[in-house]
Amino acid sequence: QVQVVESGGGLVQPGGSLRLSCVVSGSDSIPWIMAWYLQAPGKQRELVARINPFGNTYYADFKKGRFTISRDNGKKTIYLQMNSVEPEDTAVYYCNKFPPTASWGRGTQVTVSS
Predict the structure, then answer these.
(1) What does the pLDDT read at residue 62?
(2) Which of 28, 75, 79, 83 is 20 to 30 A from 52 via CA?
(3) pLDDT at residue 90 above 90?
(4) Per-residue confidence at 51, pLDDT binned at 50, 70, 90?
């Protein structure tokens, strides 16, 4: 069974940067579209960005320009580089396939606060 483990979150000041990582296990390769999602307090989980096995990307409009999704297929790892973070970026960040499966990881908490 494919599983993911997200990491890299933490407390960051507004304007700072974070790099999230998602390691995929349970498969010899990751030949799927992978994505990052976020769930802000009191809100539903929503798509941040997705990337196909060839590196083509798509970003949700509300995060475009500040976040960059990337992947290392050999390491079975998906990344989310977050720059110029804002308090509104505070959320739990998850990775999953796109469209998402029912199997979610624990996510990684990102808190943007001064």
Answers:
(1) 76
(2) 83
(3) yes
(4) very high
